[in-house]
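To whoever is on call:

I kicked off a structure prediction for a single chain this morning and the downstream step that reads the tokens threw a length-mismatch warning. I double-checked the sequence; it's 445 residues and nothing unusual in it as far as I can see. Pasting both halves so you can look.
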Amino acid sequence: MSTDNKIADIIKSATLIERQEQRAVFVSFALVFVLMAAYYMLRLVRDSMASDWTNTEISVLWNIQFFLSLMFVAIYGVAVSKIEFRHLVPAVYGFFALSFVSFHFGGTLVEDPVLLDKGFYLWVSLFSLFHVSVFWSLMADLYNKEQSKRLFGFIAVGASAGAIVGPIVATVAAQTIGSASLMLTASLMMLIPLPIVFYLQFLKRTELHNDQINVDLSHMKIGGNPLAGFRDFFTSPYLIGIAAFILLYTAISSFTYFEQTNLLREYDRDQRTQILAMLALVVNVLTFLLGFFATGRLATKLGMPATLALVPAFMCAALLILAFAPILTILLALQVARQAGNYGITRPAREMLFTVVPRESRFKAKPVVDVAIYRGGDAVWSSAFALLTDGLGLGMAAMAAIGAGIAAVWAGTGLRLGSVFATRNEAVDAEESKDKISPTEYSTN
């Protein structure tokens, strides 16, 4: 047996990745690594700005973000209808790369730095959801349902690795070339994924052999109504269920984000960046370990209902502890557990949910759920948090008790959604066993 084959067999034993899948999986890993490294370089700068503003000011920004999300999801729907699939994903990443170049050089033209900071905060927040949604749409199109259960967890480790490297690069760059130059550095990094996407589309046909499972439309247009994503969402109980799961998640993430922001107000921006960088490092090391050794096995062994409910159930218990002991150490530990659990377990499992929806819904309805619904949740829960804290004066203990109740509902929603996925997955498998998908079944209008 050759050395290459021995290495491939070792990789298969450790990660459940078959030999013919390994090239595509590692390239996918590299793609999300670069994307997340670039994003985390920007995120630290964004989050360090937030403690300069009140809860109400942040809430206003999150409400603005919701309407921006609606507008850009609609624009993306038009792009899906008009741009050939093989150009779509590179076009999205190229657009955001150019936008951050504009922010970098636009700083010399704006007199009010607060206005520029808030504009940058909004744009990074939009990018944070959009680039991830587009990436996972691409992954759902490359791999079949059985592969997604085994491989998505490992691919998500690439995001964790990038999220580890990004803060390290940002810390060094801030000390050498300045924080403002991070935008330019990150935008140049976002150009790297463009040729990788084309290579992955090639591997889909030559090594994954998935062109018969998800028909190859690389020289066609997806077509259809550009606003079909909104239509598909409102007419699909399954997609609405995914949206409910995300809304409950945003409630918990909003709670921890605002409390973290409040606790960091006494520090200056450089100190906040250092604290947030250390927090991100711990979170993403844990996520890396979860994704490498556990996530794929959890979805396979426990099933989707238990996998989706695992982190919400843990958060319910952790928030109850925080309600009785509302101190900084427990809040930071909770924040680490929430983010690591989401990135390493909940998010990859959530992406598997889209492998049983039609192709057009995958590309048009998914951004509605991932971007518009997510940011809508941010808007609602940020307003509620500002009202309960700035308005009614509730403290951390009371907010933690409320959060525990929401987390319990979130866990129940995960159980139900996972059961529906299992039923749909069995039905799709039965249908595919009877009849293979033919390219002629898809409209190119």
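Update from on-call: the warning came from a stale cache, not from the record. Cleared it. Sanity check on the structure: Confidence is low (pLDDT under 50) at residues 213-222, 436-445.
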